[in-house]
UniProtKB/TrEMBL annotation:
Gene3D superfamilies: P-loop containing nucleotide triphosphate hydrolases. Keywords: ATP-binding, Nucleotide-binding, Repeat, Sugar transport, Transport. The keyword Amino-acid biosynthesis does not apply. SUPFAM superfamilies: P-loop containing nucleoside triphosphate hydrolases. This is Sugar ABC transporter ATP-binding protein. SMART domains: AAA. GO terms for molecular function: ATP binding; ATP hydrolysis activity. PANTHER family: CARBOHYDRATE TRANSPORT ATP-BINDING PROTEIN MG119-RELATED, GALACTOFURANOSE TRANSPORTER ATP-BINDING PROTEIN YTFR. Coiled coil: none annotated. Residues 17-254, 266-493 form the ABC transporter domain.
Amino acid sequence: MNGAVVASPAPTGNAIIHLSNVTKSFGSVRALGGVEFRVSRGECLGLVGHNGAGKSTLMHMLAGTLRPTSGTISLDGADLKGYTVALAQQAGIRCVFQELSLCPNLSVTENTRMMHRHTGGFGWRRRFGNLIRMQLDAIFPDHGISADAIISDLSIGRRQMVEIARAFTVPNTRLVILDEPTSSLDANTASQLLGFVRRFIGDGGSVVLISHILGEILENCDRIIVMRDGQVSVDAPADSFDRSRLVQAMGSAHARTRESLASSTDRAQGPVMVRARPKFQRDETAVVAREGEVIGLAGFSGHGQTEILVEVFEAAGRRTTRTEAASSVALVAGDRQRDGVFPLWSIAQNITVRSLAALRQGPLLSPDRELAMATLWKTRIGIRTPDLNNPILSLSGGNQQKALFARALGSDARIVVMDDPMRGVDIGTKMDVYDLIRSEAAEGRTFLWYTTELEELENCDHIYVFRHGRIVADFAQGDLSEQQLIDASFREAT
Ligand SMILES: Nc1ncnc2c1ncn2[C@@H]1O[C@H](COP(=O)(O)OP(=O)(O)OP(=O)(O)O)[C@@H](O)[C@H]1O
């Protein structure tokens, strides 16, 4: 097992699926280098590892959407020559991948119907509408999603909820792979999902849970597999881990624990760079960001935080009735699939697109300058790729997100707005990015940062909590506890 540490593995006779000595290469990139992996009945298996460690590639093998370059796959103890998507589905294996697979121009009901190819007939719309509604109710009470809603009209969090609920609508489902299922969910919705996962396991189901939020893994899994550079580095019962052992096993240079990076200097005297009053605000309260401040936006997702960031982005260098941005603005999109990456462009082009003016040589763009800028950011932010001219989609999800950070931080924008930007970014990189944000803020850059992760708010100088499109509370750094944030998130504006 390639030097992996294995502690009291569950009996293999109980395995639903077993991958043995599996390798996978994409051209010169060896994504998996001889992996041993199994999932047993009735277990919640946590899968963690740095960005690009090979987790999603391994899950694609389980789903049958990728074939191993070498190695074997056995299902319920039987070795299979040609493992396919159809076989995986027949065996009750469902996958919810990081990059969501819903059809954006179809409704929630129609997308549910697609999971049930062999059933249809008269009245299918009502039947599948009821089915997805029931499943959403079971997992996310108070979800507020209509079965008739068109997917492209839903926020990324709600799309993620539909994608998850849809996977559980198929009757024979017995193993569900959840690849960073909570990355776009707020804390309340995430805990509803994890509660449901535990009930599903209690009823004999199995789940593979991939997450960079290590607390979720430690609290909800029975066994944890840590991947590192395409190999399993540790496979052990969850109760043999704590957070620091997990971080260490991932090979992160950043075993440091939570630490606030918020500024200790008082920036209250600097010039105002951003003033933004939400559209539905009934009083004069506004988000105010001074030069060099890192301002956090919090509250449950879909409560107006993204809208205010977009308004600031659009107001760059201008002043409107409600929004003022004193300088140029760069945006780090949270919904990278829809608003972030240019899918047909290279990694280098995706990084440099916000800085074209600075990369010109005469009237033309200089490829050398473009590559030099991309290379600088590849090193600064640790983008894992053998070649920056490769397509952006050849990167793992977390590495794509790093490229979006590089695009914004590498630009000359004085204001950076970030819409839940750490989606899928591993713990080591997060720590690097926190440091980067803090040092850029010390140089006078201003940040507006919407995040669904409480831990990240500790990096902010001031925090505004949103509810139903309005600011309902604001806290100076150090004044905010978890309970206060939850209470404020439920508070109605007066
Ligand atoms: N289609 C592809 N073409 C080329 N390389 C790929 C492709 N898919 C994955 N890779 C490479 O395989 C490696 C493993 O990627 P994978 O997506 O499995 O990582 P991961 O552990 O899921 O990362 P993350 O936490 O960022 O999602 C990476 O180096 C990635 O760039």
